[in-house]
């Protein structure tokens, strides 16, 4: 079950004195200079060429020469802007807009601008930062390429620090079971957990432990509120947000090469054809997820197929108890076409962090403050991407160790397979930092509306404080997000990660990561029976910086060790692991403190074969007692593959990883079946009661017994039964049969039984059986003839060449069938139970009869079936589920919970079977807060 987690925006209003403007402004007309011939004006050249450009700007008693080169990576070639219900129109080719470079050839300077519609962005020279944007009729606007027009050039000047606001977060940090398991797997791998000791060479590789580039093909959707607010700048604005999010996912602290690729951009109009967008964040998310699924392509190979979808809206989103929610997404839904989606409330440029945060949830990341993260990594700082408050993100390490461990486990376990295909035509995202294009003043307008301006006396780069009005007074307000990266903060400096740092040309000096040395192999996970040793390496030689590529290739390698056989204890290795939890009752009243645990094999999906799933012996209850078994544990009783770090890896019958050796029919590793003898038979003539079929000797393997129902019927009153060498029934004895599938452990071997609820009742054992078993068929009722066939394999007897005598292969040969007894006990049908539910008794007649159905007296008294037994199903009782969220975020609403009438064991009965007088309350009123 996936939790819905929302990112809360904390808003604080502090009354401050507001003084004069914080920057000098002048009107300028930029000139474009040919790289070879000076003096040509910018607007006479037409469209900017990709080979680069030089611009001259004269202002503040000096000349600025901006040397620019194309700088764009993140927009897909097939990117298109689409209005649902309207014919698609060609999108402006924004990938040609974004440029970066230097000023006056000063290596400490920087420039990052968009050249579409005039110059828009920022540049810095000799410690002073400048913002330029086109003017239209004296207001913010855009110029068409080739159109003359003035620009506004702003020069920043220093400010002083303002008071900090208190940080609060009311979001509950939910966890799903997969996150808990991922952290436990990480914790045990760091501990070097093992079962005893040993060493041995051998190697194997798997892409599951490899660092592989992932491409998150993304759909961006904007609703009409976004179009009304941003106008023609909408597409460029959202691509700027995605560029920032993409940079965050390329940071080495996430420990994986993840690329965000925008493949489609859609704008919703208020025509009823889009998703239902309301203040209810959860309902909006549900509606958007269903809507985007209908629009997505069927095949992942299609160039416009997306792996995840993001909706941007200016609507004020509300969670269960507050309207401070800035975003919402389901946890761990990446590659799920129905649920891989998120909704973002646009809050200005900091929405880029909200976007990255919600994508983190889709990648299965919880909030950093959850207890499970703290148990493994200690108390984490509140400046990482998955912090609930998103304040002052540490751009030197934006992702916490917890987030990196969980996304690595998520991808290693095969949940990111849809991300392996490289997008055919990704949309190029802007390369410049957002603070370059959007001035501090524009950041205030994007966050708090037109007319909002930066407050004075702010501390550089920390929280963005902007002007506003409350109760008719001028106030300063903040959403606790830092200034946008790239915003100038003094001479030769700009903001990065909420700090004012020396300027670097991050695009020019990218450093790709390279793998460090392999660590030595760790200790063996077992001392016998085939263990595993691990070696790891990190992408730190060097670590990628300034957007450089993360390492690709294996990050973990492993080899086999301790292949010597274990002493025969009569128990399998997985069985021993389950038994280690004996007495642990999962803190539930369903189980006692003396509970014993046995492995559960049947009904376990292939993806979960390396989890320690155990069943409480004698019950139907089963639990995941550990997120992974000890390395070297066989994935299944009938498989030679073994578990490594929670993943099933192929191995040979010799226990060696990478080996291709296989068992033959009589379980000889590397054998050719020449030493095997097949034994088969048929049984079709029954008598009432238990009928002897065959004794399977110790040493037999590949046992397959099938009893086909008469005329295909499921309930033909014929049932398989099994006794051990001591005459004790292991299956369907004492006239009590199992309707469901069962696993029966016998001295390390496993019998898999299908249950009686199938037309073909089956009993199978692949491995060598360590003790003789007697197969019987129980025939009752109408005595329909069974059709029972059995096969198994035993080793052939070998002749001793020196003595010419037959010797045994140390395995028991097939004994002659025992004679059928002259007389046997014949039980009658059980009578009715003395109670309709609860604890009652049943009785029946038990008679000794000879083969001719005459009463006899020579039946062994020790084998007499019981004539009395307890009975009674559990009495029906009401079971109540969890309450839903309140139907209203304020005022009086209602909440509801599911009720079901249960007979225990998960069986649901019609409601009329439970007493109405004892029915719990199903609907109740609730008030979260006054409106």
Please explain how this structure is put together:
With 931 residues, the protein is mostly beta strands. Strand 9 (106-114) and strand 10 (120-125) form a beta hairpin. It is built from 10 helices and 52 strands. Strands 3, 4, 5, 6, 8, 9, 10, 11, 12 and 13 form a 10-stranded antiparallel sheet that branches. Helix 3 (234-249) crosses helix 5. The chain is elongated and about 125 Å long. Helices cover 11% and strands 30% of the residues. Residues 214-423 form the Peptidase M12B domain.
Average pLDDT rating: 78
How many H/I helical runs?
10
Largest sheet: 10 strands, antiparallel
Indicate the radius of gyration in whole angstroms: 36 Å
Binding site for Ca(2+) 1: 217, 300, 307, 418, 421
Signal peptide: 1-23
Subcellular location: Secreted, Extracellular space, Extracellular matrix
Cofactor: Zn(2+)
Name the descriptors.
elongated, disordered N terminus, 931 residues, ten-stranded antiparallel β-sheet, 10 helices, 30% strand, mainly beta, seven-stranded mixed β-sheet, metal-binding
């Amino acid at each position: 079950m996936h939790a819905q987690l929302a990112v809360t925006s904390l808003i604080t209003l502090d009354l401050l004195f507001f003084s004069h403007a914080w920057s000098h402004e002048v009107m300028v007309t930029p000139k474009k200079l040919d790289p070879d011939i000076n003096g040509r004006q910018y607007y006479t050249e037409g469209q900017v060429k990709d080979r680069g450009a030089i611009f001259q700007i004269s202002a503040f008693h000096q000349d600025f020469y901006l040397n620019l080169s194309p700088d764009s990576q993140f927009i897909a070639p097939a990117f298109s802007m689409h209005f649902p219900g309207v014919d698609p129109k060609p999108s402006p080719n924004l990938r040609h807009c974004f440029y970066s470079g230097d000023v006056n050839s000063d290596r400490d300077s920087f420039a990052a601008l968009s050249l579409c519609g005039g110059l828009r962005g920022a540049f810095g020279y000799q410690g002073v930062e400048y913002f330029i944007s086109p003017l239209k009729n004296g207001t913010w606007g855009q110029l068409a390429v080739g159109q003359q027009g003035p620009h506004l050039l702003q020069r920043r000047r220093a400010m002083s620090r303002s008071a900090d606001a208190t940080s609060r977060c009311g979001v509950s940090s939910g966890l799903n079971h997969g996150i808990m398991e991922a952290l436990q797997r990480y914790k045990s791998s760091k501990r070097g957990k093992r079962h005893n000791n040993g060493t041995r060479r051998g190697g194997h590789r798997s892409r599951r432990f490899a660092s592989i580039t992932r491409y998150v093909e993304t759909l961006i959707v904007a609703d009409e509120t976004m179009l009304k607010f941003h106008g023609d700048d909408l597409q460029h604005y959202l691509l700027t947000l995605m560029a920032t999010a993409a940079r965050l996912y390329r940071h080495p602290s996430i420990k994986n090469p993840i690329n965000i690729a925008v493949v489609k951009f859609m704008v919703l109009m208020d025509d009823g054809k889009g998703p239902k967008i309301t203040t209810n964040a959860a309902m909006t998310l549900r509606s958007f997820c269903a809507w985007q699924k209908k629009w997505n392509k069927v095949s992942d190979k299609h160039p416009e197929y997306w792996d995840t979808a993001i909706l941007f809206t200016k609507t004020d989103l509300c969670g269960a108890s507050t309207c401070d929610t800035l975003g919402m997404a389901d946890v761990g839904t990446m590659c799920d076409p129905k649920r891989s989606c998120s909704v973002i409330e646009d809050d200005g440029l900091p929405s880029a962090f909200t976007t990255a945060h919600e994508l983190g949830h889709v990648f299965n990341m919880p909030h950093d403050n959850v207890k499970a993260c703290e148990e493994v990594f200690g108390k984490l700082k509140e400046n990482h991407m998955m912090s609930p408050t998103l304040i002052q993100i540490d751009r030197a390490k934006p992702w916490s160790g917890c987030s990196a461990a969980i996304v690595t486990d998520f991808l290693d376990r095969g949940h990111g397979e849809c991300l392996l295909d490289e997008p055919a035509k990704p949309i190029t995202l802007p390369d410049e930092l957002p603070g370059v294009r959007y001035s501090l003043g524009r950041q205030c307008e994007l966050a708090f509306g037109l007319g909002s301006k930066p407050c004075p006396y702010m501390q550089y780069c920390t929280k963005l404080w902007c002007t506003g009005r409350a109760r008719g007074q001028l106030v300063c307000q903040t959403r606790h997000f830092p200034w946008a990266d790239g915003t100038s903060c003094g001479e030769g400096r700009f903001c990065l990660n909420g700090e004012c740092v020396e300027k670097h040309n991050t695009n020019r000096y990218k450093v790709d990561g390279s793998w460090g040395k392999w660590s030595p192999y760790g200790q063996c996970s077992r001392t016998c029976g085939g263990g595993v040793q691990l070696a790891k390496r990190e992408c730190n030689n060097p670590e990628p910086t300034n957007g450089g590529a993360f390492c690709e290739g294996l990050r973990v390698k492993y080899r086999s060790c301790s292949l010597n056989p274990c002493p025969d204890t009569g128990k399998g290795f997985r069985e021993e692991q389950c038994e280690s939890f004996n007495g642990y009752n999962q803190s539930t009243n369903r189980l006692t403190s003396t509970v014993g645990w046995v492995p559960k094999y049947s009904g376990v999906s292939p993806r979960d074969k390396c989890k320690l799933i155990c069943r409480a012996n004698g019950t139907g209850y089963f639990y995941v007692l550990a997120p992974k078994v000890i390395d070297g544990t066989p994935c299944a009783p009938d498989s030679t593959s073994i578990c490594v770090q929670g993943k099933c890896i192929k191995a040979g019958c010799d226990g060696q990883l990478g080996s291709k050796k296989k068992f033959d029919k009589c379980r000889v590793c590397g054998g050719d079946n020449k030493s095997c003898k097949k034994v088969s038979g048929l049984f079709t003539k029954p008598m009432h009661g238990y009928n002897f079929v065959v004794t399977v000797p110790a040493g037999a393997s590949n046992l397959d017994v099938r009893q086909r129902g008469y005329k295909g019927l499921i309930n033909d009153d014929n049932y398989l039964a099994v006794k051990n060498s001591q005459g004790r029934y292991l299956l369907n004895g004492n006239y009590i049969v199992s309707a469901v599938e069962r696993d029966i452990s016998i001295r390390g071997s496993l019998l898999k039984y299908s249950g009686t609820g199938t037309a073909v009742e089956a009993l199978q054992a692949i491995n060598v059986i360590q003790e003789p078993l007697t197969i019987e068929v129980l025939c009752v009722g109408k005595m329909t003839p069974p059709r029972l066939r059995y096969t198994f394999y035993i080793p052939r007897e070998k002749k001793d060449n020196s003595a010419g005598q037959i010797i045994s292969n140390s395995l028991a040969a097939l004994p002659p069938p025992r004679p059928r007894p002259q007389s046997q006990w014949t039980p009658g049908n059980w009578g009715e139970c003395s109670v309709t539910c609860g604890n009652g008794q049943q009785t029946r007649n038990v008679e000794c009869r000879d083969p001719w159905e005459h009463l006899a007296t020579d039946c062994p008294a020790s084998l007499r079936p019981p004539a009395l037994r307890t009975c009674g199903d559990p009495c029906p009782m009401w079971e109540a589920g969890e309450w839903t969220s309140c139907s209203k975020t304020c005022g009086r609403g209602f909440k509801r919970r599911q009720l079901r009438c249960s007979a225990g064991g998960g069986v649901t009965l019609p409601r009329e079977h439970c007493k109405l007088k004892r029915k719990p309350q199903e609907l109740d009123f609730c008030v979260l807060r006054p409106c």
